[in-house]
Amino acid sequence: MIKFNGVNKWFGKLHVLKDIDLHVTSGEVVVVCGPSGSGKSTLIRCINRLEKFQKGELFVDGTPLHDHSTNLTKLRAEIGFVFQQFHLYPHMTALQNVALAPINVRKMKRADAEALAHEKLDRVGLADKADAHPTQLSGGQQQRVAIARGLAMSPKIMLFDEPTSALDPEMIGEVLDVMVKLASEGMTMCVVTHEMGFARQVAHRVIFMDEGSLVETGNPHDFFANPQTDRAAQFISKILTH
Amino acid sequence: MMLFYFQRLIEIYPFFLKGLWMTVAVAGISLVLATILGLLLGLVRASENKFLVAIVGVYVAVIRGTPFVVQIFIVFFILPEWGIQLDAFPAAVIALTILGTAFICEIVAGGIKAVPKGQWEAASSSGLNLYQQLRYVVIPQSLQTILPPLVGQYVLLIKDSSVVSVIGVVELTRVGWVTVNRIPEGLMVFSLVGLLYFSISYPLIRLSNRLEKKMATQQVML
Known about the structure:
Shape of chain A: globular
CATH architecture of chain B: Orthogonal Bundle
Helix content of chain B: over 70%
Number of helices of chain B: 9
Structural class of chain A: alpha/beta
Mean pLDDT of chain A: 93
Number of domains of chain B: 1
Distance between the termini of chain A: 35 Å
Number of strands of chain B: 0
Strand order of the largest sheet of chain A: 6-7-8-3-9-10
Oligomer: heterodimer
Radius of gyration of chain A: 18 Å
Strand content of chain B: under 5%
Largest sheet of chain B: none
Shape of chain B: elongated
Largest sheet of chain A: 6 strands, mixed
Number of helices of chain A: 9
Radius of gyration of chain B: 21 Å
């Protein structure tokens, strides 16, 4: 579903992704972790080309992203992206946020798109907040609207970039619950997160990145119990003891 | 004597109304054109194409850095060089449009850049094309920043339109000049001219202030 072949990226002189090889299959849930500045956000932002890369190949659902003639708009419609800071449209209600892309990209009739949006809001537990504006919602609620917005496009892949990092602790659970449910339904997911409970519970694979390299990959049980590299071991001890 | 001139002035009021109408026509047409062109150039100026950004930047700098009266003479005298004979009215509209576009383009670009990058990313991530991103996500949010100074700019442009009198457009200021030759009460004549400008500008100033307040409260609500 997602295939990185020797992907390299530089920000100016800074080498932020170094020879990334990674293959994510359909239905797989991959958690990407690592210290800040390790390139994990950049990695998943490459998957829908929010970031360009200079070298290597990347195929997403068979579409070559290294090819500059690729129709990004079409590709992005098939990939949901959830941001750390939600990025809901502040001038629209929750319902309008969710219905916007189905109306304009999928060319759905307004009534159908709104019915769909109600269904997706219901799925994230916010059926009663359809008419609220983002500022009237808590962080956790905003992030769930953002997830509903992604799901409304019936994406083949959902990408999450630190979806709970901007939330107050008591709101993290409600967002993770939605993600766990999504994973159990077979969605292909790449999640950048430090929520190791989530990784243990639903990830098929954990990927550890450091300084732009993919250092270690394994199933969550082995990764946490038995890290193969010192850097991963150090990282795990830090996040588990803090 | 003053009373006499005042009565003369009242008698020729249709002349002033014609001047007022000409000012409204020159400024009005230019404002519409400058708004459309300013929006387009503002989008270019806020884009990531460094080459186009620089070109628009040069245009804006030249227009802002030269007096309008010089610009209008250049427009008025350069076109005949190329074999195009223009009346004063279209020349005035062209010059005022060029001036207004430069300022409006900067206002629009500022408003668009004030929209957080995350909004663009969210919109493009959900598959909206560039036009849809602008139309539904970015422009509605940037209007908050754009509208109050835009209306303020309209007021400035209406006042700047008095300069087109130098190439012989018989608008309000020109009417004042011509009248002073017949009614030698300069203060009286130009007070009337000023009052008529004010009658167009003041409603717009009020509108700009109201928009500013409304946008400010809306921002809190959003």
